[in-house]
């Protein structure tokens, strides 16, 4: 049976949504998933670069997804919702709370929680590469306070966050690829001794294979958070359906 998923880009950049769609269509079978895409309204920021814009985007998106039952984006019309922003985005928690109050079985995941849980299960050294420097303390605090297992902490597998010092929309530019690769080599691999590098921003979407090829000799695993988030979401949906 086909699962019905909504991918939410909580910022107002339509180009980012198009990039997400292009990446997803290359990796997820249309035979198994029907995927719709939502871009934040004009009241959402064009890019999310910290806590303030995260909250702003949540306040802009939540009413569109939960208030109008006739909307094509009404959350209960979907089996699952992926919030495509790499952060502890408040929209994830808010949607889960609304779903719980309305006793809905819709599954909701974000990119940060799903990718960190994947790394917890794999059990290898991992770190994050992100966009601007403002994200370093935010992501480190979120990961350390909410998402690490006891085993990951005991084995010191979590190595921290590295910034490219680039804005979100600049990450996808081919002109910046070498700069990103150099930072990963110097910081994530050599300095932090990471075996897994989480591509910690939706702006990295589609770069997983290119980076894997660049670092083939090192054997580094690059985690495309969109792909991991979707696969985990699909598994959650199938499990919920199996209980019916």
Describe the structure.
The protein has nine helices and eight strands. With 244 residues, it is α/β, with parallel strands linked by helices. The protein folds into two domains: 3-110 and 227-242, Rossmann fold; 113-224, Rossmann fold (3-Layer(aba) Sandwich), CATH 3.40.50. Strands 2-1-3-4 form a four-stranded parallel beta sheet, with helices on both faces. The chain has a four-stranded parallel beta sheet with strand order 6-5-7-8, sandwiched between helices. The mean pLDDT is 93.
Short précis:
With 244 residues, the protein is an alpha/beta fold. It is built from nine helices and eight strands.
Named CATH topology of the largest domain: Rossmann fold
Give the tally of β-strands.
8
Instruction: Show unreliable segments.
Output: none
How large is the count of helical segments?
Answer: 9
Query: Which strand order spans the largest sheet, edge to edge or round the barrel?
Result: 2-1-3-4
Distance between the termini: 13 Å
Shape: globular
Number of structural units classed as domains: 2
What is the strand content?
Answer: 15-25%
Q: Would you identify the CATH architecture of the largest domain?
A: 3-Layer(aba) Sandwich
Q: What is the chain-wise order of helices and strands? A: EHEHEHEHEHHEHEHEH
Largest sheet: 4 strands, parallel
CATH class of the largest domain equals Alpha Beta
User: What is the radius of gyration?
Assistant: 17 Å
How much helix is in the residues?
A: 40-55%
Provide mean pLDDT, rounded.
93
The helix/strand class is: alpha/beta
Which key features would you list for this structure?
single chain; 244 residues; Rossmann fold; four-stranded parallel sheet; 46% helix; Iso_Racemase_Enz_sf
